[in-house]
Design brief:
Layout (H helix, E strand, L loop, with lengths): L2 E5 L2 E3 L5 E8 L7 E7 L6 E6 L6 E2 L8 E6 L4 E6 L8 E9 L6 E5 L3 E5 L2
Parallel strand pairs: 2-11
Antiparallel strand pairs: 1-3, 3-8, 4-5, 4-9, 5-6, 7-8, 9-10, 9-11
């Protein structure tokens, strides 16, 4: 059974940093692109990062480029999202997900319960 469990969210001041972690099980992480997306109630889902399999190539939208960094540790079945220079508009529930298709246009297949990130002074 595919499982993804996000953790590491919380309340942080603008300009601060958080590191989200995604623990995976039930599938071989090495074979999957993994993405992080975020969602605010009433808004559409927004992809914020994606990492490929073989060469671990990464993709970010302009809204987070230079501030967010996705990484993976296949041996530990974990994927991370380092978020720096956080802004209030980054406030959302963040999810990690398995991805079908290329990272440039991901289709999310399975995801966890999410972790809340709140950026506020």
């Amino acid at each position: 059974q595919v499982q993804l469990v996000e953790s590491g969210g919380g309340l942080v001041q603008p300009g601060g940093s958080l590191r989200l972690s995604c623990a995976t099980s039930g599938f071989t992480l090495d074979y999957y692109h993994i993405g992080w997306f975020r969602q605010v109630p009433g808004n559409e889902r927004e992809g914020v990062a994606c990492i490929g399999t073989s060469d671990s190539s990464t993709y970010y939208p302009d809204s987070v480029k230079g501030r967010f960094t996705i990484s993976r540790e296949n041996a530990k079945n974990r994927v991370y999202l380092q978020m720096d220079s956080l802004k209030p508009e980054d406030t959302a529930v963040y999810y990690c997900a398995t991805v079908f298709g290329p990272c440039t246009s991901p289709e999310y297949a399975s995801w966890g319960q999410g972790t809340q990130v709140t950026v506020s002074s």
